[in-house]
Amino acid sequence: AFSLFDKDGDGQITTKELGTVMRSLGQNPSESELQDMINEVDADNNGTIDFPEFLTMMARKMKDTDSEEEIREAFKVFDRDNNGFISAAELRHVMPFPS
Questions:
Q1: Across the strands, what pairs with 13?
Q2: How many domains does the chain have?
Q3: pLDDT tens digits for 19-74?
Q4: What pTM does this model have?
Q5: What is the pLDDT of residue 87?
Q6: Which residue segment(s) compose the domain that 10 sits in?
Q7: CB 50 within 8 A of CB 12
Q8: How far is it, in rounded angstroms, from Cα 58 to Cα 86?
Q9: Selected residue with higher pLDDT from 16 and 71
Q10: Beta strands in 57-99 (DSSP E)
Q11: What CATH number has the domain bearing residue 55?
């Protein structure tokens, strides 16, 4: 999932990258809303989200009872080749989208 957000592969999710994904999901957040989303989990205050911060963000989106380990296990369901990334093909395999 992280690689779907991190379009340039630099290990950081910017407001621009977050906005691109949000818009692809039918959302239309403002620049300030995107910055607020990043600021909520940006532990090192560098203005972007790295992978540990991404896990924090996803954990907050999930039920309070879901632990980080449960989220990692759910990630593994999508990451079929265990390379640490979820490709579009892997996402389609688990969640088929209508064409």
A1: 49
A2: 1
A3: 888 888 788 889 999 999 899 889 999 999 998 888 887 777 765 555 677 777 77
A4: 0.55
A5: 80
A6: 2-94
A7: yes
A8: 15
A9: 16
A10: none
A11: 1.10.238.10
